[in-house]
TrEMBL record, chain A:
Domain of life: Bacteria
GO cellular component assignments: plasma membrane
Primary site of residence: membrane
Annotated family: Belongs to the binding-protein-dependent transport system permease family.
Gene3D superfamilies per the UniProt record, alphabetical: MetI-like (1.10.3720.10)
Membrane topology: Multi-pass membrane protein
PANTHER family: ABC TRANSPORTER PERMEASE PROTEIN MG189-RELATED, ABC TRANSPORTER PERMEASE PROTEIN MG189-RELATED-RELATED
Origin species: Nonomuraea turkmeniaca
Residues in ABC transmembrane type-1 domain copies: 71-261
Keyword list, A-Z: Cell membrane, Membrane, Transmembrane, Transmembrane helix, Transport
Record-given protein name: Carbohydrate ABC transporter permease
Membrane spanning residue stretches: 12-32, 75-99, 106-124, 144-162, 183-208, 240-261
Swiss-Prot/TrEMBL GO biological process terms: transmembrane transport
Record localization: Cell membrane
Automatic annotation (TrEMBL), chain B:
TM helices/strands, residue ranges: 32-59, 87-112, 124-150, 230-250, 291-311
Annotated stretches, region: Disordered: 1-22
Protein name, as recorded: Sugar ABC transporter permease
Domain ABC transmembrane type-1: 91-307
Organism: Nonomuraea turkmeniaca
Chief localisation class: membrane
Example GO BP: transmembrane transport
Subcellular localization: Cell membrane
Cellular compartments per GO CC: plasma membrane
Membrane topology: Multi-pass membrane protein
Biased amino acid composition, Basic residues: 11-22
Length: 276, 318
């Protein structure tokens, strides 16, 4: 069919889109691998230099950056939230999709409504006061707990379970005497694994990149990686090779995840969009 | 011997022989377990959703500061905000950047999605590369763009200088700083929105295009008269998403001023979210910040309603 064949214009547009998408990341690598005087040179240097290792060591050992702590903390926060959100969402998704109980539809509508409120901006002051009075500021708990609330996860897993776990399968397991939690573990979880992957990747990325709430509730002594970069940027804003080495370090884990799971991410996004 | 060959009566009696305690437990399991499974969400929502929302409203009616003095203020915080030039400047900045970022972003994303919808090799690789910006952290990218827009050594000014344009101080003035921040937002979200549009486009039945093509409609006409109207539900989703994200913009303008919520020397790119942050966590004026947070919510509702009505009209009359 001729209408689906790309024209020259389409090819040029796609080429441009790829270049524009990749360029800032390439530029990050260029500056991160050069000396600071190269970073501010005119005309600019367009090719990577040989200082990448040196700059990375400099940022990792910088006494005021706490970069190693930042990377470790971000990893802990993102992993704990991701695992918890997957458990909470698959359990609730299973209940909403496959179990009968009074008030099911009403509760599901409530979940959808709560998704529409930008809680992060709206509730930030009382949430901060709560963390202060619990003496949790400066600790990772304060970052982790509010993010266990994830309406999107419930919505996604409800949709996913509905479509991949037939009711007959659940009823058959019940007749065989399996309790609800056993059905969840043995029947539902194996069937919704692709949905779990999408939710997991999504949550991990959101947590890794989160900025506002950790900025409020943590401090420079015990930061997440974004807060560590923010601290460098605030105090040494023209030490480009140092900061850029830090930003490069901060996105490497995500790019690795992306390359490994790219197919699922693209597929999951497109599927989710059509269902929404 | 398999179960099927047993007489029916034997099978049933076998089930009835279960000890009563187990039967009771299984009834509780069926009746109560569903509530147990969905309860974590609602407990979390009560603690980290409902409680903060309610207390934001409560704080906003009080004069409440770091020293702990709490005094009833009624609607004073709100009326003070409505008379506060700094607040209005933040509102104008937020809406201005939102429009500057969203309009080109939607148009580009639509055309990009249309291009991605063609048949070509390396499809997955190309789709992944337009999504690449999404997986990078906002702060990291804002740092890179801030350097690209730097006055004395930034790449943008260097390219302009090749055309004889004098170096521009992107951060110092209102519109240029908005443009710089809007490009950061667009870089991150255009590819994502294109992928969402693409998903919507692929649900459009092919017969519609075939019929249009038999009727002699050119490819361009098919895009305007088939693709766009059929894409309306997806567009509503994308536009509402962008409205919430755009009106709560925080990370990019914060990083553009090295993590300072002032948003430039004259507050020229301070957003409402930054205003809330500054009032709460630098001025420690919790009541005022809470009132501003509610006005931000109102702004989002208004923005969402306007955009919803706007999108509903696209292609609707044809």
């Amino acid at each position: 069919m001729t209408i689906w064949k790309p024209t020259v214009l389409t090819r040029v547009m796609l080429g441009l889109a790829i270049i524009v998408s990749a360029f800032p990341l390439y530029w990050m690598l260029v500056i991160a691998s050069r000396t600071n005087s190269d970073a501010v040179a005119t005309p600019p240097k367009f090719l990577p230099g040989g200082n990448l290792g040196q700059n990375i060591i400099a940022v990792l050992t910088h006494p005021e950056a706490q970069f190693v702590a930042g990377l470790t903390n971000s990893f802990i926060v993102a992993s704990v939230v991701t695992v918890s959100v997957i458990i909470i969402s698959t359990l609730a998704g299973f209940a909403f999709a496959n179990l009968n109980f009074r008030g099911r539809n009403l509760l599901l509508v409530l979940v959808l409504l709560t998704m529409a409120v930008p809680l992060q901006q709206m509730g930030v002051v009382p949430l901060y006061r709560l963390m202060v009075s619990l003496e949790w500021t400066g600790t990772l708990k304060a970052v982790i707990l509010p993010y266990l609330l994830n309406g999107f996860g419930i919505f996604l897993m409800t949709q996913y379970t509905r479509q991949s776990v037939p009711m007959e399968l659940v009823e058959a397991a019940r007749v065989d005497g399996a309790a609800t939690l056993r059905i969840w573990w043995n029947v539902v979880l194996p069937a919704v694994r692709p949905g779990m992957a999408v939710l997991g990747i999504n949550t991990f990325m959101l947590m890794w990149n989160d900025y506002m709430w950790p900025l409020i509730v943590l401090n420079q002594e015990n930061p997440t990686v974004q807060i560590a970069i923010n601290g460098l940027n605030a105090r040494f804003s023209t030490e480009y090779s140092l900061i850029f080495a830090g930003t490069a370090l901060s996105i490497i884990p995500l790019v690795l995840v992306f390359v490994a799971f790219g197919r699922q991410i693209v597929g999951g996004l497109m599927e989710g969009a059509v269902k929404a | 011997m398999s179960l099927d060959t047993l007489p029916r009566a034997t099978r049933n009696s076998h089930r009835r022989d279960r000890p009563p305690g187990r039967r009771w437990r299984s009834r509780v399991d069926v009746k109560a377990m569903p509530y147990a499974l969905v309860s974590p969400y609602f407990i979390l929502f009560a603690a980290f959703g409902l409680f903060p929302l309610a207390f934001t409203l409560y704080y906003s009616l009080y004069d409440y500061d770091l020293a702990g003095t709490v005094e009833w203020a009624g609607l004073d915080n709100y009326s003070a905000l409505l008379g506060d030039d700094d607040f209005w400047r933040a509102v104008v900045n937020t809406v201005g950047m939102f429009i500057l970022a969203t309009v080109p972003q939607m148009i580009l994303a639509l055309f990009l999605a249309n291009a991605l919808n063609k048949r070509f090799r390396l499809r997955l690789a190309i789709r992944m590369s337009v999504l690449l910006p999404l997986v990078t952290s906002v702060v990291a990218v804002a740092v890179v763009f801030t350097q690209l827009y730097a006055r004395d050594w930034g790449l943008v000014n260097w390219i302009l200088s090749l055309f004889g344009v004098d170096p521009y101080n992107w951060r110092a003035e209102r519109i240029p700083s908005w443009i710089a921040i809007a490009t950061m937002v667009d870089w991150r979200w255009t590819g994502y929105n294109a992928i969402i549009f693409l998903a919507g486009m692929q649900t459009i039945p092919r017969d519609l295009y075939e019929a249009a093509s038999i009727d002699g409609a050119s490819r361009r006409r098919q895009f305007w008269q088939v693709t766009l109207p059929m894409l309306r539900p997806t567009m509503i989703f994308v536009v509402l998403n962008s409205t919430i994200g755009g009106l709560t913009l925080f990370s990019e303008p914060m990083t553009f001023y090295n993590g300072n919520p002032d948003g430039g020397s004259q507050g020229q790119f301070q957003t409402v979210a930054m205003f809330v942050y500054k009032e709460a966590f630098r001025e420690f004026d919790y009541g005022y910040a809470s009132a501003a947070a509610w006005l931000l919510f109102l702004l989002i509702l208004i923005g969402a309603a306007i955009n919803f009505l706007f999108v509903r009209r696209i292609g609707g009359t044809k």
